[in-house]
Amino acid sequence: MSCGRRWWRLSDVRQVNRRIARRLGYPAPPDELEMPDVTGWRERDEVVDRALALDVVVSCAHGFEIGPAWTWLKANDLIDAVTHGETDYLDELESGIHLDDLARRLQVEALWALLWALSYVDDLDFGAGCGGGVAPLLPEFDDVAGARAFRSDAVVRDGDELLAALDLARCLTAGLGDGDVSIGFAPGEVEPYVVWERRRALEWLAGADWDTDPAPPNVGSIPGS
To answer: I need a surface site. Which of 46, 63, 192, 194 has the fewest CB within 10 A?
Structure first.
């Protein structure tokens, strides 16, 4: 009986998301697009760690110095929260290599999705980018106490909300097609990277590896971490 109610609920989620996709200007997702099969969501402290570490990486892509970045991460016990890919990127920056700067800057939209998941953002609107909304929500790098306050105030959203957002992101990326296109023509009002990067964060919340770019959602399951 509970399984039947679950599938009815998931069907309702997809129906609503199909309407949202049309309203945003995206084509209807293919009928074979699978619903997300999530067995559990990441815990609050892990999500907070990911948001704070990502904030540092995005800031470094905009010019924040590497030395102070590592110092802040160490002071807040966040060294292990930096992914292997991010560590390689920061090492490249320290060597004067900036080839990946743009890609890392675009992950501000993934950070925005994490802030939404932590209830710092009221609405994850896929019809608009985050603009300058991220910085005021995060602690300053010279404020260690601010990082502790950020953690204590965070509340992870209900799993049903996360599931609906993940399904919507998959519906929209199905309309985008090529995951290698980050900037350029898109059926909606925002650049493709806005949707792809938010989906990166939502897939990670469901257990995927952060450094693995989300695959077009109609070609199989997303690799887990």
So the answer is: 63
3-class secondary structure per residue, 75-89? HCCCHHHCCHHHHHH
DSSP state of 129: -
Section 14-36 average pLDDT: 93
- Give the torsion sign (CA, 45, 51, 55, 61): positive
161, amino acid identity: E
- Between the alpha carbon of residue 88 and those of residues 2, 117, 198, 215, the distances in Å are 45, 27, 22, 22
What torsion do the CA atoms of 14, 202, 93, 120 make, to the nearest 10 degrees? 120
**Of 177, 213, 176, the residue nearest 85 (C-alpha):** 213
pTM of the model: 0.90
Q: Residues near 74 by Cβ (< 8 Å), separated by ≥ 6?
A: none
DSSP-based three-state secondary structure for 117 = helix
